[in-house]
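Fold it.
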Amino acid sequence: MELHLINTIFMIPHSLSRIFIFFSIFFLLFSCNREVSKPVEGEWRATLEVMDGKQMPFLFTYAEDKGITVLNAEEEVIFDDVTIKGDSIIIAHPIYEGVFKGVFTPDSINGNFIKPSLNRIMPFKMKQGRKERFAVTAAPKATVTGNWETVFSPNKAADRYIAKGTFKQVGHKVTGTFRTTTGDYRYLDGSVENDTLRLSTFDGAHAFLFEAKIQGDSVMNGMFYSGNHWKEPFSARKNEAYELPRADSLTFLRDGYEKLEFTFPDTNGKEVSLADDRFKNKVVIVQIMGTWCPNCLDETRYYTDYYNKNKNENLEFVSLAFEYAPTEEKAMAGINRLKEKVGVPYPILLAQYGSSDKKKANQKLPMLSDVLSYPTTIFIDKAGAVRKIHTGFNGPATGEKYNEFVKSFEAFVGKLVNEELPLNDL
């Protein structure tokens, strides 16, 4: 090929030959020797820019055949949909709509994390190499191991809510979570430097950053950042005896209502009602959820596993999805994606799209006192009576509380399944 090119060059007029030779040889060498670069496999550190210019860090590993695996304490979140074109890269979660779009070199990726339906964009930077989640240059002067009685937005009545912080500290490293009455803040991972606590988590849907000053191992005051759209102060004090209100005491049927009723379309467009024969004279577990909600995903995985292991002709599950996707088509696509990736064997109905506002959810289910949380689970017995409503979900990050939920759930469902249907309902 080289000889043919040289012979061709010498047939060109002398005035153009030098220019042509230069570009021809450049093209020849470039085309023969160029290699398409890719991000280096191995350990990486990333930061997302949240409010006030704060950088929320997380660690991940990259493998060409697996994508990226985000590491939050004991949790692994896999983004297995990676597209590379030229020096551009797109990294997508298998269920959530949030996507990283950026430009890469072998050891760096920079761009934006985008949630289209919410019109949210967060700049990010990723750098290859083994690093600490938070850079620590000084030893801890405080220990946060234990339980913390916590209040978020303590001075603003409209936004105020309570939580329980549970943490474990080894050296300067800290893991744990904040558990609220409506769910938990996932697997938090961070450190104590001097008298400052820093914790973060990124689960594909949420980017959480907590920063606090600790006073005497017993009091902390700080700020909670959720992406670049929300921040609020929080205060906490060490209290080993502190416990939150019972999760089955927060939502209930309004006066004048005896049963739950709904009719919503499934992913095939078929209207499904709680009055259908499928649910008649059976125990029914109704999950109020959203495909965008990580706690809902954890709960859905558990319910799917339970359903598959405990198939019973007297037991049915059904989920009601409240989606912020702007169109019915996109909302249905999100539901189908969840069903496919998790293998959900029971129907997920589209209760609402265009907003996940809990007040609007209450309009769809007016017999409930309040829809306080995604997820919320309603337990219905064989006679159609609502026997319990459980607000929120204590996910795997809560450790002992998650195990307590599993035991309580299985015992209560087993009790309902084994109950005899009253003769007048046969």
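Residues 263-425 form a domain with the Glutaredoxin fold (CATH 3.40.30.10).
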